[in-house]
Amino acid sequence: MPDTRRAFLKASIALSAYSFATATGLIAPTTSQADWLADFFAPATLDETVKKTLNIAGAAKINSTDKIELKLPSIAENGAVVPISITSTLKLVEQFYIFVEKNPVPLAAIFNLSPDLEPFVSTRLKIAETCEVIVVAKAAAQLYRTQQTVKVTIGGCGG
Question: Number of helices (H) and strands (E), helices first, in the chain?
């Protein structure tokens, strides 16, 4: 019995020391910290945000395609919660970018995907008013886009 209690006390002291060191910044996790893309998620026009965001992606031209499928309601009764699902038949999809044309912050989301998996994303958007929802996919160092108009009846970002 004393061995178990000693092991418990050692583990408790080690955990307390590690927690204290992490909380005070003496040691910091390096791989678990995400990069915050504050410039991308800042209020701007759609054109400014697209240029800023997609210049980082590395492709100059955005091609329209029918290989990206959006499941998005054409009429959203509540703009505060609009469900969206994105699938694609493009090969080697690395990223999905979702832009909402008339939102104060046009970039709604960036999803990094493994090219080994089926490209599928499902989330909810907040849409300020009736506008275009634009999805851009980065696949094999090329950019592809599709869009759909969503009519918002109440709610949204603006009120």
Answer: 2, 9
Q: Which 3 state secondary structure label does DSSP give 156?
A: coil
Distance, in Å, from the CA atom of 24 to the CA atom of 38, rounded to the nearest integer, reads 25
- Pick the more confident residue, 154 or 104: 104
Residues 87, 106, 113, 142, Cα dihedral to 10°: 80
Cα–Cα distance measured from residue 143 to residue 71, given in angstroms and rounded to the nearest whole number: 20
Q: Which helix (H) or strand (E) holds 139?
A: strand 131-139
Helix residue ranges, H only, the chain: 2-24, 46-57
Rounded CA gap, 35 and 46, in Å?
22
Q: pTM for the complete prediction? A: 0.73
pLDDT confidence band for 58 (50 / 70 / 90):
low
Cα three-residue angle 99-104-109, rounded to 5 degrees? 30
- The listed CATH number (2.40.128.50, 3.30.70.260, 3.30.450.20, 2.60.40.2470) that belongs to domain 46-154: 2.60.40.2470
